[in-house]
Amino acid sequence: MTAGDLHRFSFDGLPVRGAVVRLTASWQEALRRRATVGPFPSAVRALLGEMSAAGALMQSAIKFDGALVLQLKGDGPLRMAVAEVTSGLSFRATAQVVDTIEGAADLDAMVNVDGGGRCAITLDPRDRPAGKLPYQGIVPLEDAGGVAMRRLSDALEFYMLQSEQLATRFVLAANDEVAAGLMLQHMPPGADAERHERPDPHRPHAEFERLAMLGASLTAEELLGLAPGEILHRLFWAEQLRQYQPREVAFACSCSRARVQGMLVGLGRAEVEDIIAERGEVEVGCDFCGEHYRFDAVDVGGLFTPARDQPGSTDTVQ
Ligand SMILES: [Zn+2]
Q: Which of these, 117, 187, 243, 294, is most buried using a 10 Å CB contact count?
């Protein structure tokens, strides 16, 4: 099996498919870029790594052209965390930290202090018409019995079951060198699991549970330390495993000067000219990649030529 970051697989004759991902250089680059804006606490870095790995796993399992956005919002010291993965498997991630986060804080302690935490997944098509909202599913960070979820994997498994009716297992782990994950998914009767065969609708769910238990035996150390091929061999050596061409996963940010210009136009002429009057320039930094965009008075004047000025923008408010 050739190298590659993301390996998809299925089991011959069983309605189960999965993928294993291991991000190294791309993950280190994401952290390095972000550190130029301001580094995150280690628990947040680990969570963002898990979110990036999980986003890549989920994106690889759907037929969709656009961005999969995995977002956590909450009421704790971590107000928001987001990982975005395109169908070309490039990713970016960032977070908003509003208070101290000590050591290895779990998901509950970071985003669900008063039970307001949410996990949202948005599928944003590349060709989405302006004004049309993308598809979004949201679940709370506690199960039906009110038990809080301490790990991202718990939240994602709950999400997949609630929103997609798919039994799924995730094993996720990340440190500053590696962000990695394993996903196993039960394909419901009738679903087009893979091109070569359709699952038997009468096959008991027990096969998925059996493979999920094998998957769950994977430790964080193994996940972080072993190559995808080794992981699959270690877990599923006794299975009829079918592996697909591995894919690369890269760090990439979709920010651009044109997008920032659009944002400034949306902000309105008066607001932007106020900033120019105060500081001499407008500087916008990208939270994902650390890129800085600067606009001086001449640039700003060019943004608000009559043709591009927005009627009803804040410049009518004195
Ligand atoms: Zn950026």
A: 117
